[in-house]
Amino acid sequence: MIHIYQASNYVALINKIEKSADTYKANESAPWLLLKGDGKVRGFSSLAEAKDEALKVFAGCKFKRT
After folding, report:
1. What DSSP state is assigned to residue 32?
2. Strand 41-44's sheet: what is its strand order?
3. DSSP type of residue 46
4. Which residues pair with 2 in a beta bridge?
5. Which residue in 65, 37, 42, 40 sits closest to 52, CA to CA?
6. Would 49 disulfide with which of 15, 44, 56, 61, CB 3.0-4.6 Å?
7. Which pLDDT does position 13 carry in this prediction?
8. H-assigned helices in the chain
9. Higher pLDDT, 25 or 65
10. pLDDT digit string, tens, across residues 1-59
11. DSSP state of 23
12. Rounded to an integer, what distance in angstroms lies between the CA atom of residue 22 and that of residue 8?
């Protein structure tokens, strides 16, 4: 899980759907999820794509992996 901060504000997170999750599908084309603070969720095929989108939406944001 990667938490996203803009200045000192927590704005979103990136998470990967694990194979053990109820929502996992074997042919999942977008296993990386960007979950925004406003409740919107977008799926991406790679972590790099999810981070790029976060940088577009939250300019100057920082990533913290947990």
Report:
1. E
2. 41-44, 32-36, 9-16, 2-6, 62-65
3. S
4. 14, 65
5. 42
6. 44
7. 96
8. 47-57
9. 65
10. 999 999 999 999 999 887 666 665 655 677 899 999 899 999 998 999 999 999 999 99
11. T
12. 33
